[in-house]
Amino acid sequence: MTISILVTMFVGLAGGLAVGSGFVAFLTVLGIIPRLTQLTKTMKMIQQYEWAVVLGAVAGCIFSLNPYHFTLSPLILIPIGLASGIFVGMLAAALTEVLNVIPILTKRVGVNEQILFLLMAVVFGKIIGSLFQWIYLN
User: Fold this and answer.
1) What's residue 37's pLDDT?
2) Which of 61, 70, 89, 130 is the most exposed place for a label (fewest CB within 10 A)?
3) Nearest to residue 46, comparing CAs of 61, 59, 27?
4) Mind giving me the DSSP string for 44-87?
5) What residues contact 111, with CB distance under 8 A and at least 6 apart?
6) What does pTM read for this prediction?
7) What is the DSSP letter of 117?
8) Buried b (16+ CB within 10 A) or exposed e, 69-108
9) Got the DSSP string for 11-44?
10) Taking the mean position of all CA atoms in its chain, how far away is CA 32?
């Protein structure tokens, strides 16, 4: 194998681990599903919420890795867009609490003095990843 294939495999694995870890931490540390069931007063349906998250993640992976294209009517797209907007709004509201997770995590891991470097690594990683996607993949 060439070095570029190995680097690509490493970057893909590292990115997948980072995104997967972040998603699991987002769900578990913040307790998104239990909070959602408390707000909607549907505690008895928590297992359905969990399965919806798992199936949504699997479907998202399948559709993002395969070139499926759908042509749907605008009448069908309106509810899908509405549901997507609700999801993004709930995600934005939950992410405001994530800012409290990073200082707690750095204290528990023992890198409290390097919190600035941790945050800068996240910021620069997002910037470089976005630029790579916009410049190279488009």
Assistant:
1) 82
2) 70
3) 27
4) GGHHHHHHHHHHHHHHHHHHHHS-------HHHHHHHHHHHHHH
5) 118
6) 0.49
7) H
8) eeeeeeeeeeeeeeeeeeeeeeeeebeeeeeeeeeeebee
9) HHHHHHHHHHHHHHHHHHHHTHHHHHHHHHT-GG
10) 13
**What's the first-to-final CA gap in the chain, in angstroms?**
26
pLDDT in tens, 67-125: 877 788 889 988 988 888 887 777 666 665 555 666 777 777 777 777 788 778 877 88
Residue 100 CA to residue 30 CA, distance in Å, equals: 10
DSSP secondary structure letter of residue 99: T
Structure tokens at 56: 């949504």
Give the separation between CA 55 and CA 49, rounded to whole angstroms.
10
